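ok so heres the complex, two chains, lmk if somethin looks off
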Amino acid sequence: MRYKTFPQGIHLRYHKQATAGKPTVTAKAPAVAVVPLIQHIGVPCIPQINVGDHVFMGQKIGDAEALITAPIHSPISGKVMALEARPHVMRRDVLSVVIENDGEDELYPDIMPYPDWERLDPDTLRNIIREGGIVGMGGAAFPTHIKLAPQSDKSIDAVLINGAECEDYLTDDNCLMVEHPEWVIGGARIISHILGNVKIVVGIEANKPDALAAIRQAAGEGDDISVIALDTKYPQGGEKQMVKALLDREVPSGGLPSEVGVVVNNVATVAKIFELITTGMPLISRGVTLSGPGVSAPGNLIARIGTSMEDLISECGGYKGKIAKVIMGGPMTGISVFTTLVTLTKSIGGVVVMRHEDICHEDPVVCIRCARCVDACPVYLMPISLYHYSRSLNYDQAVEAYGLFDCIECGCCSYVCPGRLPLMESIKHAKAEINNKRQKQHGR
Amino acid sequence: MADPLSRELIVSSAPHVRGRDNIRRMMYDVAIALIPAGIAAVYFFGLRSLLIVLITVASALGAEALIQRAMGRRVTITDGSALVTAVLLAYNLPPTVPLWLPFIGASIAIGLGKMVYGGLGYNPFNPALISRTILLAAWPVLMTSWVVPFDAVATATPLAVIKMGDNLQAVKDLLHVDSNLSLYRQMFWGNHGGCLGETSIPALLLGGVYLMYRRVITWHIPITYVSTVAVTALLLGRDPIFHLLAGGLILGALYMATCPVTTPVTPRGRIYFGLGAGLLTMLIRAFGSLPEGIMYSILLMNAATPLLDRYTRPRIYGKGAR
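and the predicted structre for the whole thing:
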């Protein structure tokens, strides 16, 4: 049987068997939670508490008066010990709220469910989602309430639910779909309601038969939801690839899916919206896969935001072997951290620990023009040309003729390169250089 | 548990994993794919073929080591690329060549075909073919002295015979067969005069299938090359099956027109490359002064490769569609 998919892309090694069948375990709440005030794309939050304050679980501790931002809540109840810069996944140090756990998990009294959500208007629901601190949990961390208020002139006719989970090792989305398919379907219905009762299409890679079966059953017989099995191919979970595979539409270059009438959300985000509406609980915990050959007992956890990597790895039996890399996210797009003191944020669905023998130690050689990068690129770029133009600082050519900014940074090119060239790395570097230059010009 | 701060972690940009294939693996795959044709060469033309291959390989590796040392570079003769160049050059030599010729040929291939441009990845032309053009110009008699398989009797190649009068009967007489079918069969198996490694089609196809299975080569160039030759032959009123089986088409299409360094990186570019090479091959075979056109057709298309890459850039996702 041929499944729907997008052109090109690559086949990875998956390595999902270590955690795929394991039920989700709730991780111990941290003794001290370190909650960074940047956990989303957009304006950083400003602390809403002071050092010494008592905070409840689910109480808002950070927010900002900006359009693109999402508030942050306390994952535990306890006392605010400090407001200080701490190591962060994406940046060097970020202002974080350090909370000492009182072990009570005392719920913030204002938290309440919205049982009559179907009678609420879209704006009210969007505001509930904003106040719940919901952001894209698939990795992008874009505030969801903005996504659900598309600015485009084109009307939205479909909401796509992304259950691809195409990265190696990660299985937390799979677990969620198997264990709580009704959360995913329920959340999808809420989103559909907000967008004007549009059709729902769920895309799941075919290597997750249990998730497909569970979601199909939860979706029921109605024709408002279709559940589609997708080819197991990386990066199937990329937003643009999802739109191409499920609807055969292409998001315009530099544009948003809403310009082709689509809103895409990850299954974890959708389930979290359901949880928020049905219980009132904001985003203070999430599913996270702890896996990789450097973890003793790989597993799927539900962990509080603000739990350190060190605690999460301990929860899974600690390390195994000589550790080389701790990757937040999947091995294709994740971030390797310099310390395991960094804590879990809203958009991290996996921690992969690699030993020395698991990473490629080959030095870059040379381009032999084998074209594998060109054949692999899921947005049909010529990564090798971008590499050459980036390295020779010919940024204009890279941007104008070779589409530098169309790169989705999936890493396929670097993965397949037999010359071991840092293709995506050089593209990312060029993008950053150009953005810096543009910012400086604006500043003047 | 140890202090997390004392642990040294590697920090690097994503992706954190790499595919299995590297250049060395791909090169040795090509070398493996060329083994059946080598066995066929020994079968048809005797152990001398093996000696020619070994001399070519040894000379190529020696030349590369020497030049790299002279240039003050790291010696990389084990990466398999000089090996592949050497074997391809050897397969493009007549079985009768004096044993000093492969030595000269290999030195030219590595020196003038590859290292002058900066080494692996930078040569615009196929090094083995560059060397062959020079050998052919310098020693035209030695480079066109053919023998009958299993025998040291001098003979002509089917292409040379057909060049004389465009007459399939003359080729049948040459190979002592009376029907077209037995002619095709004999040419298919490789029982006729020609270069060392070009005559046995099944041996070459076996290696070609291996390379496609291992994803070292893609279908684009071989398929378009071979089909263009067939269609052009048909349009020119010549026997397409003869032209598919004759000369170095299969060796060229599967192993030299697929040389990654000297061919386009874009899918459409590769298709145009095959089209152009096929067309040029048949034009040379039909109207040129040479009997065979594989070598020059591939070299000419090598020269067109930068242009092909430039004008066949893939349409970027989300640009100019829907």
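quick notes: The longest helix of chain B spans residues 47-70. thats all i got rn
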